[in-house]
Amino acid sequence: MADVPGSDVPSSVVPSSAKAVVIGGGIVGNSLLGWLAELGWTELVQLDKGPFPNPGGSTGHASNFIFPVDHSKEMTQLTLDSMRQYREAGTLHECGGIEVARTEERLEELRRRMASAKSWGVDGCRLVTPAEIKELVPFVDESILLGGFYTPSVAVVDSLRFGTVMRERAQAKGARVFANTEVLGIDVEDGRVRRVRTSRGAIETEIAVIACGVWSPRIARMAGASIPLTPAVHQMIDVGPVPRFLTSKTAVDYPIVRDMDTNMYERQDGQGLEVGSYAHRPILHDPDEIPSIEESSLTPTELPFTQEDFEVQLEHALQLVPEVLGDESVGIKYAINGLLSLTPDGLPLLGETPEVRGLWSAAAVWVKEGPGVGRALAEWLVRGEPEIDLQSSDIARFYDEQRTPENIESRTSEGFNKTYGIVHPSEQWESNRRVRMSPFYDREQALGAVFYEAAAWERPHWYESNAPLVEEYDVRPREHEWDARWWSPIINAEHLAMRDRAAMFDLTAFSVFDVVGTDALESVQRVAARQMNVPNGRVVYTPVLTPSGGFRSDLTIMKMADDRFRVVTGGAHGMADKKWFADNLVGSARIEDHTSTTCTVGLWGPRARDVLASITSDDVSNEAFPFSTWQTLTVDGSEVVASRISYVGDLGWELYAPVEDGAKLWDAVWEAGRAHGVVPAGIGVYGTTGRLEKAYRAFGFELDADYTVVEADMAWWKVKAEDFVGKEAHVAHREAEPAARLCTLTIDDHTTSGGLKRYPLGREPVTLRDGTPLTDAHGRRSYVTSTGAGPSIGKHIVMSYLPPEHASEGTKLAVEYMTELLPATVEIVGSRPPFDPENERIRS
Amino acid sequence: MKILCCVKRVPITGGRMVLTADAEALETKHLGFTISPHEECAVEEAVRIVERDGGEVVALTLGPAEAEEQLRDCMAIGADRGVHVKTDGSEWDAQATAAAIVEAIDGESFDLLLFGNESADAANYQVGIRVAYALGLPVVTGLKKIELLAGRARCERDVGGARDVYEVPLPAVLTVLEGLNLPRYPSVPGRLRAKSKPLAVLEPARPESKLEKLRLVVPEGQGKQAEILGSGADAAPKVVEVMQRLGVA
Amino acid sequence: MNVLALVEPADELSLQALSFAQSLGDVRAVAFDGPYAPSAWAAALVGAAGDAGAIVAAGSDRGNELLAHVAARLDQPFAANVTALDGDVVTRVRWGGSLIEEARLHGAPKLLTVAPHTHAAAAGVPVETLPAPEDGSPRVLETISDSAGGISLRDAKVVVSGGRGVGSSEAFAVIEELAGLLGGAVGCSRVVTSAGWRPHADQVGQTGTKISADLYVACGISGATQHIAGAKGAKKILAINSDPEAPIFATADYGVIGDLHEIVPAISAELRRVRGT
Questions:
Q1: Which CATH number do you get for residue C16?
Q2: How does DSSP classify residue C200?
Q3: What are the tens digits of pLDDT across the range B155-181?
Q4: Fewer C-beta neighbours within 10 Å, C or N terminus of chain C?
Q5: What's domain B2-202's superfamily in CATH?
Q6: C103 touches chain B (CB under 8 A)
Q7: Chain B contact set for A292 (CB, 8 A)
Q8: Chain B touched by C83 (CB under 8 Å)
Q9: What's the whole-model pTM score?
Q10: Cβ(A359)–Cβ(A193) under 8 Å?
Q11: Do A348 and A393 meet the contact criterion of CB atoms below 8 Å apart?
Q12: Residue range of the domain that includes C121
């Protein structure tokens, strides 16, 4: 028996072909199927090894509650969209939720959550006192709490029912659904999906979506791709019957409580109370070792409870809700180790896999984002892009080093206990470090480099050996521990030394790849918004757009030869960029990846030319080597590609050398630099202070799919005649008034009510002086896209998109930081740099 | 009243029996464990008696180190202390089990010794009876009801549509069946108290097995293919047809 | 070899055990008069054993108890619910029938009970009545009939049974309705009794009642092995479940896929229709 009862096609064999096959019938698979059908695709097939409505995956035992506020814009958008969908389908019940604080540190974090709520437009939230918590949730012992963050729109949903609604909608439009059907293999030919083989026959198809939750890595491996998640346990128990709940009108009469400091939650569930924990040791499971449905006494994702891992948690929960848990008549009726999916960076895995065209991943998604992810992925498949920007969840983001079992295991373990954690925006991972290191690593270490990690690369963020510069340049420390965490005044000192003399940087973490072949030009023209038909030797900085004209990336392309274009892009986004270029190759063009064979030294500052000139006999004068060009130089007997661009907005070059010549290059620059006072400087300068002073935009901060080139004030004077992705939308944007403008603001006064000076760290709401949030015509809130010191202008810089009515120089606004309003003023509307506005330094 | 409850740790099976590669045991890597159902009721009964009349409930098990979990479960619902006769994980036959139990409680005198009638897994039906003989105590088995009267127990056992009634003088050994009562779930305070209740551990050597397990076999399914009569309410006429054919409608 | 076999008069399982005993050797079949007294009867059996190489009884409640008494008295091993004996290797039943064990039964005489319904009933074997000692050991004082007087689950020709899928105690009304129409008993799975929806007396399973109905209708029951152990004595099994791959379908003769809350009332309605009521 194949099709779900009620369908009118009683065959037990799958169709021989399909437009797309969705593998998985949990919240994601069902939502995706429904949306694909909604967006007009026919000949859809859905498969699951288990029965409907509950095939036995994580959805089936999920706690089903949704707290919308998250520090991530993307996750909040997906959650809000999901809530809308649940509500429309009549499967959402608003009960409210409170995140409670037992410690001062947590109270601060709750203020941050208030700020994020305001930044992402989740309204109605407020901070509450212990007495107010008691009123809302009478069975809580408020005497152990300091306060809470209350979100009235927190809801519980019926994820199984919603999934059924979506699946049935798709079936009504002709989608075929096969329960109890196992996928046996996925055939790939020429790097594309061709066929899904199942226990009921084979389906020819070019699109297979893996929405299999904890089983996803197994299924992906059938096609030769990898989905880097691990099944992991989170424990939950159910106690009851609770005397107080016997008179409840709904299954959840009381707000859900998240006991953040103990990594636990408590929610009413009918007559019982469900208590869940993310506090135990990370318990990871092998995707190949998940029990089958027949072997399980409950379901494959409801595993036997390990009592010892819940002992401390029982005590914590008893402290918080003694009225319920201390009642001897209330029994522990149900206790499981539930399985869910964890990823190395805690974000979902969405999009087409880089290994196999047509093989899409829809994995590591929680019930709270499921419907939103379903819609976004369906839009991505059918229309070429999702409405909600999914760039942080793009499965193409991982480098090979990040997909190793070792990395998955160590990072998911480290990340698990941070589920309700206080995670500083700049917080670094501790596990699995020293995976990718440049040839300069040892030298940097000897100089006291403080290494931060990005894309598995170790990069100096600043150098402790530069500590004397702090006094030399009179840099002030930050007064509050939180603001000063993961930061050092040395960063600002390095910046000032650079502007004063010069600094050298290790930029080896760049992703460097060439588009090669007779069709290389046509290939890059499609992707790059700027004109790429330029003379050899030119370096072009260009946005890369989405079909609707938002930002997909921004990067630099060097014209090496008529059949060779070198793309240089930030390490964090490099893999996704590479896939995009590869997907858009034309004719015989191909990609050559040079990331692992290239190392890069950056050298900028007024003395940069002096230093460079002293280590090469080639002419590096401004006339011979203008800005935005590249040349080959000989340095200490080796060939070095020098590119005269500058993300720190000063005179200088990026110097690329083969990895085997790296040490020599560094030493040459270093030695020559001594006489000029060149200092080593880290990414603190490169990524923040340097570029903020120049109002240079950063992808993932100012630039994402939500904003247009015009809003970011990056439109160049003429749009090229050649077609490129997003051209039509971009042209339309140029002809219209932007709904928001990217501005540079500065903080007028950092002093807060306690008397301490505070420094925002990013994503805080930008508001009127009275705290009223700013919302543009597209419903987007104004928030801090980037912020940091502008040491050379002596101000703290904030960048934010502002609605036109507030986007004028001199407008008085505020940045809400930890619920305090720091007065700020709009310095510049658009991209004019606060420092060296005529760009004299870069062009000198 | 001083009551001994002997319990056994057994796996919670699902819809299918899976053996280890050497066919000597059930594959338990995905399985949870519990107290065998009949004696779960014994512990509940003992706790109720002591709650009403005062006394002490001692829970005892013969099993691997992990079986401590089952003793703590007994304590969580009210047992006062535990005795763990710890094995290396290999199976002990019923004779060896009974002898070890007798040895473990040497010197203690109980008013009642409660056992499950048979364990869910090995189902040998004899440990309680052997312990009774070794201690020279009367024994009644398969009980669904126990009533304590002065110095004796009045017990009932199902016999096809009726109940046989026995009376035994105390002290006595009684073996019980599920249905004796509905066992409670532990409360949170109960769980927390269980952690610190006393537990005595003994590790006797395993004697030679007289009923020596050689291997296990999963019986073949009868290869039945259920004839699907239809789906949903529409199948009702066919169902009634079948019932008529079977002579039950 | 000589085999001493204990028989309970007119008991089907005893007759099955008897035929198993006959396969082992020369059988002397004995029975007891008077109220059931396991310890006393066991003493008498031991006394009557003589040079018997095996003592055999049915794997019934009483048979297992009696042989256990004999074993304790003789301090010899005892194998319950045996299906075969080959030399000193027994094949016996574990987990209510879901697992088979092969074991070496040391000791003598061989003490065995026979797993129910694994052998045909013997016929026409003379049975001797033995006296049982009056030794003051526990014996049945009286037998009380079940005042409920309803159809006993164990004897019912039809059992209609509900599992987790029924959802609540109230929802069992549809199960009761169908059972009533078929003149059968209501049964349930262990999940249901643990939840308190039905009394344990209704439970079909390894630790509940083992049924022998002509038809067992399992509604919303997934078919865990311990449940099947109680149900497989039924001649025919009809499973009603929304999951066509539920383990119960591997044991069922017939199946209907779908929601029992729709299907069971529909069957009741159809029964009324064909009866014209």
A1: 3.40.50.620
A2: G
A3: 999 987 789 999 999 999 999 999 999
A4: C
A5: HUPs (3.40.50.620)
A6: yes
A7: 16
A8: no
A9: 0.91
A10: yes
A11: yes
A12: 2-130
